[in-house]
Amino acid sequence: MSRNNKSGKGFFIGFLAGSAVGAVVALLTTPKSGENLKKELKQKSDKYFDEVDKYFSETKHNAGKVIDESRRKLASILHDLKSKPEAIYRDAEKVFNDVKGKTKEVFDSGKERVEKETERLTSSVKAGIGTYNDEKKQ
User: Where do the structural domains in the chain lie, given as residue ranges?
Assistant: First the structure.
């Protein structure tokens, strides 16, 4: 952007310098009367000033467009920055609930296994004690 700004300044300075040099050369080399020369110089200078004014108006208009676009982009970025933490929180909460549910499933499954193994071990011990008592009686 600063390069365009420098180019614009350079163009404007060159334009003014060229206009001034052209006016002086025209003044010195033309065989016209003073009154006609004054009118022609005034017309040409008015034309050049109109062109410069038009150039600045266009530049101002373009700068306004750039500023508006920058504002829209900034608003979009700010919206994203505000909404991202909420989305991250929702995702984290979902992951937490999923992990909590799976942990409960694993815990319940492990608890059932331990109960089954405890029952099997208890019945094996009871059977062993029963067999021992039967053998002892004989």
Answer: 2-101
